[in-house]
Write a structure and sequence with these properties.
14 strands, three-stranded antiparallel beta sheet, 2 helices
């Protein structure tokens, strides 16, 4: 990994569930088990690679193939925090820790995923499918107004932006080419109005 992760890391490879048999609830009644595609285990979706002991070198790859725009994972188990290199901005005022292997989803200027913080979902990018083995990435400024640690991107994409900062520190023409969370879009619009641009 080139830069400190802002959001999104994998571990053991568990096979996907093969049945949807009912489970017993604490009161003795049965309840249907949710199928994996409703809320799949991250262990069936991604694996984390740790090429060295340096924590910023870890990254994740997909264990599944999905079409553009498909739901990849739901964001659960989140905790509020202060802004840091590992936090994800979820609204104008809220930063969260992912507390999962999604931490190892790296930045890319040609992202494979989108972190939708209004829905607490991770989706496949809308412009291309996700293939098994693809590196899992998202565009960090899509969630971050400012970055705790701006960094030199080494994603290697043809349109690599170089230094990555929060959306509030980047030009509208640059970040406007990407899918952005609604609160980031609103803050960009307010910034433009403040500059006398509409």
């Amino acid at each position: 990994m080139v830069a400190p992760p802002t959001i999104a890391n994998g571990h053991h490879h568990a096979p996907p569930p093969t049945s949807h048999l009912p489970s017993t609830t604490p009161n003795g009644t049965t309840a249907p088990t949710l199928p994996a595609w409703v809320n799949p285990s991250l262990a069936t979706l991604l694996t984390v690679h740790r090429p060295s002991s340096h924590s910023f070198s870890a990254y994740s790859t997909s264990l599944v193939s999905l079409p553009p725009g498909a739901l990849f994972a739901r964001l659960t188990g989140l905790t509020p925090t202060t802004q840091s290199y590992s936090s994800v901005q979820a609204s104008r005022t809220l930063h969260i820790e992912l507390n999962s292997d999604l931490l190892y989803v790296d930045h890319s200027c040609a992202p494979a995923l989108e972190f939708d913080m209004a829905r607490f979902e991770v989706r496949v990018a809308r412009d291309r499918p996700l293939r098994r083995g693809d590196k899992l990435t998202f565009f960090y400024p899509s969630t971050e107004w400012t970055m705790a640690q701006p960094f030199a991107c080494r994603c290697g994409s043809g349109g690599c932006l170089g230094t990555i900062r929060g959306a509030g520190e980047m030009g509208r023409g640059v970040v406007g080419r990407y899918w952005l969370n609604g609160f980031v879009e609103e803050m960009l619009a307010e910034r433009e109005v403040g500059k006398g641009q509409t």
